[in-house]
Amino acid sequence: MTNKHVIYGDNFSKEDAVPEVDKITITLHVNRNDLSQNEAVTIDLFKKKNKVWKEHSRKDIDIVCIPIELDRNKFVFATADESLLVGLIHLS
Predict the structure, then answer these.
(1) How many domains does the chain have?
(2) Residue 45 in contact with residue 66, Cβ under 8 Å?
(3) 43-90 tens-digit pLDDT
(4) Between 20 and 30 A from 58 (CA), which of 5, 8, 16, 85?
(5) Are 92 and 47 in contact (CB under 8 A)?
(6) Cα–Cα distances in angstroms (integers) from residue 35 to residues 25, 55, 67, 89, in the given order
(7) Which of 15, 16, 19, 31 is nearest to 64 (CA)?
(8) What is the pTM for the complete model shown?
(9) Is residue 53 domain-resident?
């Protein structure tokens, strides 16, 4: 997940907003015992000229979800469950 303005710039909420980037780079930990060991991963935002991210139908919602596939044996993953959200949002 990232902010929509990361892809579209400051005009992300405009009906005619056009993506300003075609890829983003994220930095991920590769060693659970030494979090200073990281690797940059570049994510292409388009596949065959089609955007790969999902965004809210309301243009003013500043968040997008980008599906990625990562090697679970190479990168450090931390899982979260509903207990982290208790008190923040109502879960139904």
Answers:
(1) 1
(2) yes
(3) 999 999 999 999 999 999 999 999 999 999 999 988 777 776 666 655
(4) 85
(5) no
(6) 18, 31, 24, 30
(7) 19
(8) 0.76
(9) yes
Question: CA-based angle 69:45:81, to the nearest 5?
Answer: 45
Beta carbons of 1 and 64 less than 8 angstroms apart: yes
Cβ atoms of residues 66 and 80 within 8 Å: no
- Whether 89 maps to a domain, the answer reads no
Q: Which amino acid is it at 81? A: D
Q: Which long-range contacts (CB under 8 A, 24 or more apart) does 44-48 make?
A: 45/7, 45/19, 45/21, 46/22
Residue 92 within a domain? no
63 assigned to some structural domain? yes
What is the rounded distance in angstroms from the CA atom of residue 17 to the CA atom of residue 20?
9
* Of the candidates 64, 65, 68, 66, the residue with the CA atom closest to the CA atom of residue 13: 64
